[in-house]
Design a protein that fits this description.
Length: about 250
């Protein structure tokens, strides 16, 4: 379980997180929604220990995230970044196997390649893709490679940062479905940040709405349509009018 308790983070005068409290039970898929610049990425970075909160606590299975060995800690996470973020100079399989070829649990090259090919297959790519370079792939294929890389080391927790940005609606739907299937079959805990309500409905068990530095609402994905919270209502219907200011 991931637990954030009263987490604060400011950058200079800008108070981004102002007391974020959130629980993500093990094996659940939590999607965080909220407008641009509300601090969704900062919250994920705090969990990963890439940004240090000013106050509050964050634990993974009861252990503070800023204690213990960094390599061992990060080995428990998989991440799919916006735009896939592949390394241009590495082949597809080397991208997928990136973590397997480094760190405390480094594997021999042949074994890492075999795992990479198996993960590529899982995301719908053939073994022939393995020796191509990212620039030779379409955006949708690159996203699949990013997903294969995120799951390569069988992580306990997977973070998805805007997983469908830049994809057409059909490809976005395919990636959403793939994410959902993989998270369920791995039994992984997933945290996703997105603006895309189609992703929310496809991926989430639970949804949390971040606004003004706090979690304004949290509930199950089934509850979201009937929830009366004006922030959630404005967000899910994409209305310019409402408590969330459209000018930022
Ligand atoms: N390292 C940093 N230094 C200074 N300001 C930062 C830093 N990281 C984030 N911020 C600021 O914190 C705010 C929240 O940023 P964040 O990237 O978390 O937003 P977000 O909710 O993920 O937005 P988006 O949906 O647009 O990606 C922004 O105003 C951003 O400029």
């Amino acid at each position: 379980m991931i637990q954030l308790d009263n987490v604060h983070k400011a950058f200079g005068e800008k108070r981004v997180l102002r007391g974020v409290t959130l629980e993500v039970p093990r094996g659940e898929s939590m999607v965080i929604i909220g407008g641009s610049g509300t601090g969704k990425s900062v919250a994920l970075k705090c969990i990963l220990g890439l940004v240090r909160p000013d106050s509050g606590t964050i634990t993974l299975d009861g252990q503070p995230v800023d204690k213990g060995d960094r390599d061992d800690f990060l080995a428990r996470f998989g991440m799919l970044f916006q735009g896939a973020a592949l390394f241009d100079s590495l082949t597809v399989w080397q991208n997928v196997a990136f973590r397997l070829l480094r760190g405390n649990q480094k594997l021999p090259k042949t074994q890492a390649r075999e795992i990479a090919i198996e993960k590529l297959r899982r995301v719908g790519l053939t073994p022939e893709t393995a020796d191509l370079y990212p620039a030779e792939l379409s955006g949708g294929m690159q996203k699949r490679v990013g997903l294969a890389r995120a799951i390569a080391a069988d992580p306990e927790v997977i973070f998805f940062d805007e997983p469908t940005t830049g994809l057409d609606p059909i490809m976005a739907g395919v990636i959403n479905e793939l994410i959902r299937e993989i998270v369920v079959e791995m039994g992984a805990t997933a945290m996703t940040i997105t603006h895309d309500m189609t992703s929310v409905r496809a991926i989430a068990d639970d949804v949390a709405m971040l606004h003004d530095g706090v979690i304004k609402w949290t509930g199950t994905v089934v509850e979201i349509d009937s929830c009366a919270d004006p922030y959630v209502q404005q967000f899910i219907h994409g209305r310019a009018e409402g408590p969330i200011e459209a000018v930022r």
